[in-house]
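Follow-up to my earlier ticket, as requested here are the two runs.
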Amino acid sequence: MFSANAIRPVKCGVIHGLILAFTAFSLSSTSAAQTSQPENNTIQVQPLPQLGQPNQVVRPKVVKPATPKRPQQTTIGLISGPYGSASLQMSSELSQLIGEKGFRVIPLVGDSQNQNLRDLFWLRGVDFAVVQSDTLSWSKQDSDTKDLVSKLRYITEFSNSEVHILAHRSVTDLKDLEGKTVNLGPRKSQASLTARNILRALDITVRPIYLDFQKSIQQTRDNKISATFLTSGKPAPLLSQISRDSDLRLLDIGYSDIFAETYTPTLLSHEDYPNLISENKSVDTLAVRTFLIVYNWRRTNPRYAKVSKFVSAMFANLRTLQSAGYHPKWREINPTSSIKGWQRFDAATKILQKEFRDVSLANATAKTRSAFEKFLSSQGVRTTSLLTPQEHERLFNQFMQMRKTTRSQEGK
C-alpha cells in the first residue's frame, strides 16, 4: 500500500501533463482555424503559375516594325557652285519647287567648275552639272576631259556670273595691274580660270597668288596686293558686306571682240553695290555664261528617261521660277540660247520646239526693236556694234522671254 504522501506527487505530475497537452492542442486548433478561415482584412498571396519546366528560359515575343513604304520619287543629283553662289541657291529653289511633284532634287555644292565636269563623268549620283562657258572651252584642251566632251550635251543656259575685280583705291585701270601682285582666287576655282583668260586676252602680266576671296579682301584694303578677282552672280554677298570707307573700288573691264566667243558685256550698278559704286555710276564688266550640262545617255538607257523627265518638269516651271520671290538670275535665262560648238540634249530640243517659240530679231516690228534697244541700255550694252550677230540674237531672245513672262504675270 502506498502512502498518501507518496501518491500526491504522481497525481500532480499527471495533472500538469494533461494541462500542457490540452494547451498545445488548443493552440494548434486555433492556428488551423485561422489558416482555414481568414479574416476579411487579410491579404491572400496566390502561388505563381508554373511558367514551364524547371530551368526553361522564357523569351518575350519580338514584334518587328513594318517596313516603311518607299516613296515613288525620281532622284536627281545636281552639282552647281560653291556656298554663297547664285547657281547653288537657284538649284535649291528648283529642288523646292519641283520636289513636290514626284522629284527629289539634291543640290550638290561644287568644288570648282573644272571639277563639276569631272564629277558629271565619274561621281555616282550626279545627273546634271552647272558649268561656265570658259570651262567648256577649257575642257576641250584638258587631258582628263578632252576625249569625253563629245559625250556631253547641254540643256539650257542657266545663269550668268559677273566678273568682279576688287582693287585698292590707288589702282584706277586694269593696265595698272601690270607687274603687280593680284589674287586670282583658289588655284582650281572658276575665278582663277576666268582671271587667267581675261589677263591673257588683254596681254597683262601679273604676279599671281591664289587665295580665298574673303581672305584677300583685307590684304587688298591694306595694299599688300593690288587687286583680287571674283566670279559670282551679282550682287555677291561678300562684296555687299564691304563698308563705304574701305579704300576699295571695282575696276572696269572694257568689252571687245576678243571676248565675243566666251563672255558677254554687262555692268555693275550702284543698286548692286551701293558702298562701292557711286549713285548714277556704273562699272563695265563681263559676264560668264553658265549652262546646265548632262551626259548624252542613249535612249535605251534608264537614265535617259530619268533626265528627260526632269528636263520637262524644269521647263514647265521656268515661268514660275522667273516670277517674284525667286532669285533674280532666273529672269536672265533664255532657254533657246545656244552654245557655239556644242549640241543640245535631244529631249530638251523637242520640249523647246513645243513650248518655246524663238522670235527672230530680223522679223521684229519697229516698236519691238525700240523696246529691245532700251533693254540693252539697261543691261549696260552701250555699243551694239561690238556684239556678234549670234550674241545680238541671244540677247533679243532673252528680252522676248522676259517680256512674255511679265505679260503673263500681269494677266493673273
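Run two:
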Amino acid sequence: MADQTSKTVTLDVRDDLRSGRDPFDKIMGALAGLGEQDRLVIINIFEPKPLYDVLASRGYAHQAERTPEGDWKITFEKSGAAS
C-alpha cells in the first residue's frame, strides 16, 4: 500500500467573529477540500460547541484545547482516521 500523506489546514476565524462575520461558510469550504487523512484546525475566540454536532454528522471527531491566551484551538479529523 502506498504511503498516504496528510495535511493540516488551519483557519483562524477570530478576526471574522470580531468583525461580525459568520465563519461557517469558510469552515465548510475548508472541510470540502480535505482528504480522508487531513485535519482542520480552527482558532476561535470561544469554544464552538454547536459546530461539533454539525461536523460529527459529517464524520468528524474533534479535540479542543484552550490556548494560554484564552482562545480555543479545535482540531477536526475524520472519525477513524489514522493519527
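The only thing I checked on run two: The first helix runs from residue 14 to 18. Let me know what else you need.
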